[in-house]
Amino acid sequence: MFGDIIRFLLEIAFTLLGAALLARAWFIAVRMHPFHPVVQSINQATNWLVMPLRKILPNTGRIDWACLLAAWLVALVYLVLSWLVSTGSMVPVQLLPAALGAALLTVARWSLNLVLWLTLLQVVLSWVNPAAPMMGLLRTLTAPLLDPLRRILPNMGGIDLSPLALLIIAQVLMMVLARVSYGIFGV
């Protein structure tokens, strides 16, 4: 039971940190204004890890390699700690290549989880308060994912089905990635 609690707390802490790093990379990809309060908060929360890596990997266009590498490193540490809590021993050397791949899949899962939560937040906020200050941020972040779906899905007269489709796609992909990640590394 104690191990389950520690794994749960590890998952929460590392998922939040990984999501913050991925959100930071996403902000650059969609060209969010750097003085937006949410952007500044996430930047301040993740500077301790991103800034040293940025000296090695500078931004190239819309891709923030330092943030992506930081998210991958956080995922790797998360997997190693989860293994340690689950088994009580360090990761065997022969499993390190599998851990590297599983960390990449974990980052992909965190990305999909971020998409899921941002889309859900946008949908709920659009029902409750469509003029909320956060709606601009949410629309900017989700538009690159929702707009292609809007072009494909039929127009239902005032009902936008693209968020529902995106939620279903993200959830299915998260299940597939979780299964593959478990098959590779067992955590």
TrEMBL record:
Matching InterPro entries: CCB3/YggT (IPR003425)
Keywords associated with the record: Membrane, Transmembrane, Transmembrane helix
Gene Ontology annotations for the cellular component aspect, listed alphabetically: membrane
Pfam families per record: CCB3_YggT
Membrane-spanning intervals of the chain: 6-27, 63-85, 91-108, 115-141, 161-185
Protein name: Integral membrane protein YggT, involved in response to extracytoplasmic stress (Osmotic shock)
